[in-house]
Design brief:
The chain has two helices and three strands. A three-stranded antiparallel β-sheet has the order 1-3-2, with no helix packed on it. With about 70 residues, it is an alpha+beta fold. The structure holds iron/sulfur cluster. Iron/sulfur cluster binds next to loops.
Length: about 70
């Protein structure tokens, strides 16, 4: 089931006003702790991929990107 997220449209997980990561965004009146801008998420993703490549863990990159088993 899709959940609406209208106040954080710049979040990496927001697609046309819906959250594509969570199945529940009722945080009891608190802010979503998973919120991250698309730019920040992309930067962190590149950093992690770089670290994994340096360690020779390219299989994890494939798995993370949905190309693994
Ligand atoms: S992770 Fe949180 S802020 Fe981001 S789209 Fe989902 S509910 Fe909204």
């Amino acid at each position: 089931m899709k959940i609406r997220c209208l106040d954080k449209k710049d979040c990496f997980a927001n697609a046309d006003g819906y959250c594509i990561c969570l199945t529940n965004n009722d945080f009891g009146g608190r802010r979503c702790s998973f919120y991250k801008t698309k730019t920040k998420a992309a930067t962190e993703r590149k950093k992690v991929e770089k670290q994994l490549k340096r360690k020779g863990k390219t299989g994890l990159i494939d798995m993370y990107n949905g190309r693994g088993q």
